[in-house]
Amino acid sequence: MQPGHALKAFWRLVVKDLVCEFRLCRSWPGMLLLGLVLVLLLEMQVDLGTHEKQQVVSGLLWLDVFFAGTLMVDRLFSGEREEGCWRSLLLYPVSPTAVFFAKATVTILALVLLECVLVPAFIVFSNIPLLRRPLCFLTVALLANLGYASVSVVISALTAQLSHRSSLLPLLLLPLMTPVIMAAAAATRFLVAADLDEQWWRWVQLLGCFAVMFTTLGALVFEFVVED
Amino acid sequence: MRITQSVANTWKQLIVFGLVFSLLAGAILMIFLYAPTEATMGHAQRILYLHVSVTWCGLAACLAMGACSAAYMMSRNLVWDYWSQASTEVGCLCFTITLASGSLWAHEAWGVWWTWEARLTSALVLWLMLAGICLARASVDDLQSRARIGAVLAVLAICDLPILIMATRWFRGVHPIAPQMDPRMRIVLLGAMLGFTAFFALLTRQRRSQIDLAARVLTVERMGE
After folding, report:
1. Interface pTM (ipTM) of the complex?
2. Cβ(A128)–Cβ(A192) under 8 Å?
3. Do B159 and A217 touch (CB under 8 A)?
């Protein structure tokens, strides 16, 4: 397949998914609402001093983002599966890699939207300056979203074929995501502190390693996943 | 002819079983009778021989799982998947024992049952992934689909292995990097590793035969329907 054709297919798949979501509002509103409910519940439990709060809020933020994200990931392939266009999509001369990157891009966009809502909510409720260093935070968020999106697309495509889809998705996805959650939480914790520790860079490197590794592996195995 | 072959196979199996169980019994006897009692922790230190040996077996099982899954992806030969499934299950068992023995050790050495240290956390995460793979496999009936799903999950799960192995070097933790040991302790540890490796290798082989047999029965049943 020519690169131009693959790019065009990728773009059309992204637009198709976004248009479907905007018209039907299938999973994004639920994801946003779950994220907000979790902020409220978590913040109500964290009755700590400023220093202790600084230590835990970054972890809670990423946990909330990824947990609420599973709601969207669960329905990532259900549209195609339920409406019978999955087989047509596979028969259409589109590389599975293009499908993988299109789904990953849609997941990243959903996560960005979720973070745009949850980060201000966490700042307001916890009074911790999560955006003290916006560019550094953006780097962490970008890498964390990339790592999460790559794995979640593969797991969602796999679990879409299983009978206990909804219960197995978080069971498989969240343990796989643990290194990403850990690294993102630790890197964000250093960003909140008054002075930027050099350890921050080590966590970003670890996060970057996992993001690259998961994206490469995801792109490689996706063809194998979507075989029927 | 077939009966002679079957008798020969039974004898061969009995010899292998005898050899493996002798190695395991020897290792256990060495742990309790030959290994010196540690000055600070006393007899509780003997947990270490089980803990290290079983962890090593778990890591080897995970590497085997990843390698067999990759081999299945390339060849589409179900035999590789049977090996992968057997390794996953044995790996899960090994990490269950690792976590339990590690927790006992932690209680004796550090006064807590659990601490959120990098190596412990990554071992728990790996155990959760292995359990998840077993669950996902159990929910699929078709052999090829099950193999495909298991292979992809196994390849993703082994990404946790570098963290588990390098945890003590990359992050500050409570696990020692290169502990000093009495020469007799070192011999017992090597003996225990040999005994447990032989035992879990045999267990993996037996489980693979069982999975193979179950798959054959399923195929025959489907042909009859």
Report:
1. 0.82
2. yes
3. yes
